[in-house]
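Feature request, filed as a ticket because there's no other form

It would be nice if the structure record came with a short human-readable summary line next to the tokens. Right now we just get the raw output. Example of a typical job, pasted below so the devs can see what we mean:
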Amino acid sequence: MENKTKKNPMTYLIFIFLLVVLIVVIILAVNSYRDSVTGNVINTENSQQKNTLTNTNAPVRNCKDIQVPYDYVEEYQETVPYTTQKCETKDLVYSATNEKGIYSTCNKQSEVCYEKHWYGDSDCHQFCSDKSLSYSVDINNLDKEQGSWTVNINFYRQGSLYKTVPINQFLYPMTTKTFNSVIKLTADSPNGDANQDYSANYGIKYIPTKQVCRDVTDYKEVTKTRIVTRYRIAQKCE
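Raw output as currently delivered:
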């Protein structure tokens, strides 16, 4: 009788289990190897990129300062002529003519008598007890303007100033007026004022004035502007 060896079912199960475990281990090992290789490639690429960025030598730029022109509005002072009026105060043009010397008129005669002691006769003398003295001069306004003149008429007794009479008159252009003064003198004896020697003259106390203006050229400083070229510093790189 032939004896056949029968397989143990337990042994068969163990074998299957070990085979599955082995397959799983092989799969895990293969996957682990792939991840390792992929990681090394990525890290190598990143490292190369970093090295490339770090070690890249940019070209050196050659820069220098240069002057760049630009327009600038500049103010400046300039002396310029201009026309203006210059006015002066001037006396009106006049003349004095027809001066008449002193004129004396005795308005009243009187008499005074002195007795002679030893024979009783009287010594009588006639004298002027009321006298008028007059003096005149013509003032001619030769100007185109009108105004008032004041003239002093001066009376002198025996060379000394006795009295001054001011006379004021208004004259139109190109007209003439007589400035005349009359004074009265009285006396109660032959030695009184009316019987002294007198003279006279005139003096211009006030002459009217006018403004005479004419165009003249004067100069002033004026602020002006102009465009000038200036320069600023800039960098030029090659």
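Something like this underneath would help us a lot:
The first strand starts at residue 63 and ends at 91.
Confidence is low (pLDDT under 50) at residues 1-5, 40-44, 50-55.
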